[in-house]
Amino acid sequence: MIVQIAEKKPTDHSPVVVKMVKQDDTRGKIITCKAAVAYGPGEPFVVEQVQVHPPQKMEVRIKILFTSICHTDLSAWQGENEAQCAYPRIFGHEASGIVESAGEGVEDLKEGDNVVAIFNGECGECGYCKREETNKCERFGVNPMKKVMVSDGKSRFATVDGRPIYHFLNTSTFSEYTVLDSACVVKLPSATEVDLKKLTLLSCGVSTGVGAAWNTANVSSGSTVAVFGLGAVGLAVAEGARARGASKIIGVDINPDKFIKGQAMGITDFINPRDEKKAVYERIREMTGGGVDYSFECAGIVDVLRDAFLSAHQGWGLTVVLGIHPSPRMLPIHPMELFDGRQIVASVFGGFKGKTQLPHFAKQCMHGVVKLDEFITHELPFEQINKAFELLVSGKSLRCVLHL
After folding, report:
1. 208-349 — its CATH code?
2. What's the pLDDT tens digit per position in 198-238?
3. Cα–Cα distances in Å, from 249 out to 3, 70, 170, 235, 270?
4. For the domain 2-203+372-403, what is the CATH code?
5. Helices 302-311 and 280-288: crossing angle, nearest 10°?
């Protein structure tokens, strides 16, 4: 079997060179490889040998070359949401790699294809996938409770002594090899056109943020925008608004260092709520003559959501919810406030239909429409995954890319 292996330097941001090498044929066989296994909420990851079984009908086994860490991985690992319920587990959902083998019935992917994993799949056949109004998929949509494969209700991972290891978010990318439903694998442009390391970010964070600005809000040129929470998703929103020609992009965060980073991605003004004597939404109304055209809540905090909603202009302002809200608290909005003309909507995966639309978005990114380099703040070898999580917890990294 011929596969593509990326030659990479873990400490710099130089382009990835992908070369062709010959390997033993692993099709149809169990592969023993290293993975980062979580044995309980908040427990350090254990990098150990695991078994990865062959793909079954409509499944694909891919060799992971790069994987990065998202706040969703962090909150699930810490036990902040429903995803904590099954252990041992292999987390991770942002990754790029190559197809090692494809199961029965898979026609759009073949061995050696460059791919990214997506947590919000697209089967292309269900009633949801056939509607333009949604990017949800009836069978393969985002589901933090899912821990086994759809085809037979079993895991494709096991410890070396045969005990099952559960899947996470349709992907489980903290492993040298992983098995996904083909609906959750997107083929990218050929290796001569693509830098797989950067396109890893399209699996979640960048697609979610940019897509919210482009697809969900449809930010227009000359408009005003407020982004609440300047993590990777929030900064991706800013980058998407910048690419659309927004005239003012206000970033809101309690970390002043985020403004320095955000300026490179289009943030024009910065508000630190801790420095303000009045409500943030009042400050934004003052800065924009009544409120912004679009506000984006990326923090996952209900009180922040209220500020975001009230910072949108009466009559036409739109608030897009992107943050994950583990708290059982309800929306802090009085029904009568909706009669002021403001609207509120949530966005999943930026409204992108993964298999249909992401390949074109990947080409746009590689042509510089969206700048991906700024999002990668750290790179480490896979064995240092616990250090990568520490960087995210401390707020020092946007995206740390791990090299497998």
Report:
1. 3.40.50.720
2. 999 999 999 999 999 999 999 999 999 999 999 999 999 99
3. 44, 23, 34, 10, 9
4. 3.90.180.10
5. 20
H or E stretch covering 372 = none
Report the alpha-carbon angle 388-398-200, nearest 5: 80
Residue carrying the six token digits 């500020």: 307
Task: Name the β-bridge partners of 116.
Answer: 96, 186
Distant-in-sequence contacts of 387-395, Cβ < 8 A, 24+ apart: 388/69, 389/45, 389/69, 389/74, 389/77, 392/69, 392/71, 392/74, 393/74, 395/255, 395/257
All CATH 3.90.180.10 domain ranges of the chain, comma separated, are 2-203+372-403
pLDDT tens sequence across 244-299: 999 999 999 999 989 988 999 999 999 999 999 999 999 999 999 999 999 999 99
How far is residue 300's CA from residue 324's CA, in Å, rounded to a whole number?
A: 5
Under a CB-based contact definition with an 8 Å cutoff, are residues 174 and 68 in contact?
Answer: no
Q: Sign of torsion, CA 74 389 397 362?
A: negative
Residue extent(s) of CATH 3.40.50.720 domains in the chain:
208-349
Residue 3 CA to its chain's centroid (Å): 26
State the pTM of this model: 0.91
**Separation between Cα atoms, residue 402 and residue 382, nearest integer Å:** 5
